[in-house]
Amino acid sequence: MGANASSIYNKSDDGLNFVPLKSKLDDIPEACIALVLSYLDPPQICKLARLNRAFRAASSADFIWEPKLPSNYKHILQEFLGLKVAGLGKRDIFAKLSCPVSFDGGTKEVWIDKNNGGVCLAISSKGMAITGIDDRRYWNHIPTDESRFQTVAYLQQIWWLEVDGDLEFQFPAGSYSLFFRLKLGKVTKRHNRRVCNYEHIHGWDLKPVQFQLTTSDGDRAISRCYLNNVGSWVHHHVGDFVVKDATVPTKIKYSLTQIDCTHTKGGLCVDSVLICPSSLAKQLSSC
For burial by CB atoms within 10 Å, which of 43, 65, 137, 251 has the most? Predict the structure, then answer.
């Protein structure tokens, strides 16, 4: 193609000299642009789509976005957004699903990762069973912009710590990791400045907390960790599980416990549980 382009010339005004034609970005066929874009990640495609009209038009081709969508995208679209696939372009579907979609009364969210299309879920503290949550001597739900759910469960003091949750979801086949997002200390605002209150933090250096995960496919994981993340949010890795059949919903049970009643513990913020493809797990902090 380069040789052919270099052999095309225009006549000058005197008819004697020839000057080469300059190729333009707009001269590239749309089909060729679309083929190149199909090898790129979604963020790269979106950046190149801003170059000109040809790239923008090519970036909307369905064959580019179809492989980047999870295998269960139709289920997510219909079950949680109430939309039918017919009439929607694959790029539009990817854009809709890359934004968090709430369900179960706003206590859970599902979305696809913008880089690789992997399915991710988050479950808020209000979507879990917390022992003593209705007794304000022990727990409080406090509003905060540090949570995607705008609220966290804050433990002042308790002898028996038990947080349980369960989920049934139709995951695409693959390996997934589950995390608890926790922090020691309560964030408050003073004179319009964010300040972390440490007064209730105690008992976490005496015994480790225990995380547990089980699935309907027989996966099981137990991990233990001393909590020491004062003033910072940490994703504590509970364990991994594998989904083999994407057509069957996977049932998951998970828990956070510290039930040694020889001492009290307090000052803990419980934000949420995160489930994501294991390929994304390295990006998260864990104990």
Answer: 65
